[in-house]
Design a protein that fits this description.
By secondary structure, the chain is an alpha+beta fold. It contains six helices and three strands, in the order E-E-E-H-H-H-H-H-H. It has a three-stranded antiparallel β-sheet. Helix 2 runs antiparallel to helix 3 and helix 4 runs antiparallel to helix 5. 22% of the residues are buried. The C terminus is likely disordered.
Length: 155
């Protein structure tokens, strides 16, 4: 792969690697890039990263789990995304990251039609980061969802 990339008039020293992996009907595209690429210093680390992605070696980190969850979420597999988000919560995340993950779980539950499960994660997200972007929009949607206690069977 070439590591001199031209963007308009600007030439950049950048190495790019694209991986396309598919398994069991899931597809993931991975783009790895390194600016200021120095073959003698960076090639080995880049090759190790590519190999880890290909083999799935090592326990996944939070970024990997969130990317997998987001890939499923973006393909409307909300039930499939939730376990990845929950696994990310088991790792050492900061408050803002934990709030974001709880928001994604809340959105996934909401998209599946489960406002009660969504509200629990939404409350956790708000407690961790009250000004988290998108939380108040989701809260407004949840407040418009009628509680089951108000539903009456017609006689």
């Amino acid at each position: 792969l070439d590591y001199l990339v031209q963007m308009g008039e600007l030439k950049m020293n950048m190495k790019n690697v694209w991986l396309h992996l598919a398994k069991d009907g899931l597809w993931i595209d991975v783009h790895i890039s390194k600016t200021g690429f120095r073959p003698e210093a960076d090639q080995k680390g880049l090759e190790e990263m590519v190999q880890r992605v290909k083999t799935g070696a090592g326990a996944p980190d939070a970024t990997t789990l969130l990317l997998c969850g987001s890939q499923l979420y973006n393909h409307h597999d909300y039930a499939g995304a939730i376990p990845y988000y929950e696994k990310a919560l088991e790792l050492d995340l900061g408050r803002a990251e934990r709030a974001f993950v709880h928001k994604k779980i809340a959105e996934s539950h909401f998209k599946q039609g489960d406002p009660f499960a969504a509200s629990g994660h939404l409350k956790l997200a708000l407690s961790l980061k009250p000004n988290l972007r998108g939380v108040h929009r989701l809260l407004a949607w949840l407040n418009q969802t009628p509680p089951l206690g108000n539903c009456r069977a017609s006689r």
